[in-house]
Write a structure and sequence with these properties.
The chain has a domain of 74 residues: Jelly Rolls (Sandwich), CATH 2.60.120.10. It contains no helices and eight strands. Strands 1, 2, 3, 4, 5, 6, 7 and 8 form an eight-stranded antiparallel sheet that branches. It is 0% helix and 53% strand.
Length: 113
C-alpha cells in the first residue's frame, strides 16, 4: 500500500500541497481507502482529463482558479470555492481554460442498495 505524505492530526493548507507544473495535470492523493479517496489536482492552462465514466459519485471543489466541467454534454464553469457532484455512471470531462486546482472526493460505499 502506498504511503501518503499526510500525517493524521497535523494541519495543512490544501491549496499549498500541490504545485502547478507546465503542460501537466498533477494529482496528489491525500487519503486512499477501499471505500474512497480524496485527491488534490492541479491543471495547467489548456490541460484536462479526457471524457470518462466513473462508477461512483465524484465531489469536485475548485480551490484555486476556474474549471470547466462537462457532464453528459452540459457545461459548468466553476470559480474558486464552488463545487459540483458528478453523478455516477455519467460521461464527464474536466478542462482548464486557465490553470486551476481542485479537490476530488470519491466515496465508493453506499452503492449496495
Amino acid at each position: 500500500m502506498e504511503k501518503l505524505d499526510f500525517e493524521k492530526g497535523k494541519t495543512f493548507i490544501v491549496v499549498e500541497i500541490i504545485e502547478y507544473v507546465p503542460n501537466s495535470v498533477v494529482i496528489k492523493t491525500i487519503i486512499r481507502k477501499p471505500t474512497g479517496n480524496i485527491s488534490a489536482v492541479s491543471f495547467d492552462s489548456g490541460e484536462g482529463l479526457l471524457e470518462k465514466i466513473s462508477a461512483f459519485d465524484t465531489f469536485i471543489q475548485v480551490i484555486d482558479g476556474k474549471a470547466e466541467i462537462e457532464i453528459e454534454g452540459e457545461f459548468y464553469f466553476l470559480d474558486t470555492g464552488q463545487s459540483i457532484i458528478i453523478p455516477a455512471h455519467s460521461h464527464n470531462s474536466i478542462k482548464a481554460n486557465e490553470r486551476f486546482k481542485m479537490l476530488s472526493t470519491i466515496i465508493k460505499s453506499g452503492y449496495e442498495d
